[in-house]
Amino acid sequence: MAVDLTLNTVLLHRTDLDMDLQENRLASFAQWPLTGNCKCTPQRMAEAGFYYCPTENEPDLVRCYVCFKELDGWDPDDDPFKEHSRATDCAFVQLGKKEREMTRLDHIKLQCERAKNRARKLYEVRVAQIDRAQREVKHELNKAAPPWSPLVPGNVAGLGANTAAVPLIAIVMLMGPVVHTTQGINTVARGIAEACKEMKRVRCCAE
């Protein structure tokens, strides 16, 4: 069974852990579209620190096993060493050694740098996911809340008799640091949307 090398899976479950060996990186290029007389052959890609991790939209995507730099859109004349060298902060690039020249200490240092880069990348991905989920919540609130609702931006000052909505506003304001998964945020959003509908129903009955 093929190993899942999508970024989220790699960051969460370290499915690329064995890509520190060049032979394993080379094996990942079994379906690499560029072969023959070109600069970015599977052998050279693996030597440059990359492994193959294609997606549906990026069929030639590769990733460095140390710095997690991703590159796609390869042309036959692209030099993987030159392209990777643009990542000047990558420990693999800075080391500048072929695998057979690396010492045990070199491998340990690269693994330490990889661990730091993984933690940093995972943090960035999580922050982006939470930000995106919060935007979706706000969008759902704007769609679900009636115009008079205090959940609609600009209506908070004029709550009037709709004080039942105050806890909902508090949830929206506090959910960022409390809810850490997209599923959790969406659950809160659905609950708020249902509350908005109920508020509208009660108001209609009162009128």
From TrEMBL:
SUPFAM superfamilies: Inhibitor of apoptosis (IAP) repeat. GO terms for molecular function: metal ion binding. GO terms for cellular component: chromosome, centromeric region; nucleus; spindle. Residues 98-125 form a coiled coil. GO terms for biological process: cell division; chromosome segregation. Pfam families: BIR. SMART domains: BIR (SM00238). CDD domains: BIR. PROSITE patterns: BIR_REPEAT_2. Keywords: Cell cycle, Cell division, Centromere, Chromosome partition, Coiled coil, Cytoplasm, Cytoskeleton, Metal-binding, Mitosis, Nucleus, Phosphoprotein, Ubl conjugation, Zinc. InterPro entries: Baculoviral_IAP, BIR_rpt. Its main location: nucleus. It is found in: Chromosome, Centromere; Cytoplasm, Cytoskeleton, Spindle; Nucleus. Belongs to the IAP family. PANTHER family: DETERIN. This is Baculoviral IAP repeat-containing protein 5. The lineage of its organism: Eukaryota, Metazoa, Ecdysozoa, Arthropoda, Chelicerata.
